[in-house]
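Hi, here's the filled form for the chain we discussed.

Project: internal
Contact: R.S.
Residues: 319
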Amino acid sequence: MTLSRRVASAALLALAATAGAHAQDFPTKPLRIVVPTGAGGITDIVARIVAARLGERLGQNVLIDNRPGASGIIGSEIVARAPPDGYTLLMVFPSHPVNPALKLRLPYDTIRDFAPITTVTTVSLVLVVPPALPAQDVPSLIALAKRDKLTYASVGAGSLGHLGAELFRSMAAIDLTNIAYRSAPDAQAALLRGEVSMFFDTPITAAPHVREGRLRALGISTRERSALFPGVPTIAETLAGYEVLGWNGILAPAATPDAIVQRLNREIGAILADPEVKRQLDQQGATPAPSTPEAFGQRIRVDVAKWADIIRQAGIRPD
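And the returned structure, exactly as it came back:
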């Protein structure tokens, strides 16, 4: 071995030893979870539930840092550029794998610049329509859409509800017109007024209106039925293979030592197994969904490819 190679090898061993020592001592100071949305939304609520318990288990404060804007890109860039030491984490949601297809230039690589830690929760969407719409289930809705012009509400290009509707349109081979609103409450209000034909809503916000008869639930977007709507079939029972899964998960900067990634994975997994935490998440319509880092990374890669195809088929141009 040449002198230069021996020096390089020694440097790598020293770096690995230093990283191992830091991982063994981790954590020695407060942690920060960057939430790339505003306060009060489901991603923020889930992050705060996890942060409170994680701080107890690690013996350090875990702070929430809300950095909303640009479909999560602003907060994600902060974490992509942070030191890979486990002290700065990112709570992501499905816009993370959607953004590469919507943006010509991202200030980070969605896959290479992050180390997956775990999926935290999953959530379904529920396809709801106004009671006046003459469709009692997904098959009759599809038949209606083949005869009449129907519209769907969304919260802009790339939102999960928008992509869910576009996947539904594509798989059902029907024409639908997207009517975009500024927020989910605005979209839901338009549906309640009968201004649009359908909306892919979150179960927790749709449930009160369905119970009171102001909306009709036709289908669940995930492969399993929703606990909030046990009698409502999945859309996949009509359109085989249909699935739109909302989720939250935690990432760290790339090159974070594996020992730290595994420690955080174990701690968060234990938190999500706690009955009280499960109860808190159930109240938000979310299901605890701990995973291995590898499985979470695979979910992101699959979603990047899946939504790129749907966005391309929908004719949405990246900006």
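Let me know if anything looks off before we file it.
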